[in-house]
Specification:
The protein is α+β, with helices and mostly antiparallel strands and 183 residues long. It contains five helices and seven strands, in the order βββββββααααα.
Amino acid sequence: MIVKYFLFGVYSKIKENIITINQGDRIYHPGYGIGIVKLISNKSFVGEKKTTFIQLYFARNGLTWQVPANNIPSTIRSIISATEARKIISHLQSWKGKVSEQWKVRATANQAAIAIGDPYRYAEVVKGLSLMKEHSTLSATDLKHLSLGLEFLCEELAEALNKTQERVGELIKDAIASPPAVA
């Protein structure tokens, strides 16, 4: 059984608007990480017509989640490709943005970036807070956001590049430390 659904603006740089889900596919959810489509089935309950359900399993949390196909959260998306992963590492290296000096503004922006599930935004959170950490002490919230951003980014890049999360962590550190390439 194949299920197709529309995604509306999950993240800015990857333009996919329709996702097709098949049993056995790997997917990504920002709160739960990489998951696998375990089962697609039709079920009916007393007084209701048959509905297609998708059962997802997320190893990071040991979570099994059954959701109606017509109610899949817009934050679920396909896992990025190896090509996209390399673009994200390049983005991490070349990104020149800055984090706000105001802790409330910074915390709100970083939380929003993490919640949306955009790997480019994860990269920006990681780079911004890593560079900030070099010059000052990070707050507990900043440390949490840095840790989450790094965890989520490593998890997905490792999956896309078929590398260990430790190796991807090294690639991320190298990208942050190296100067951007001159065009």
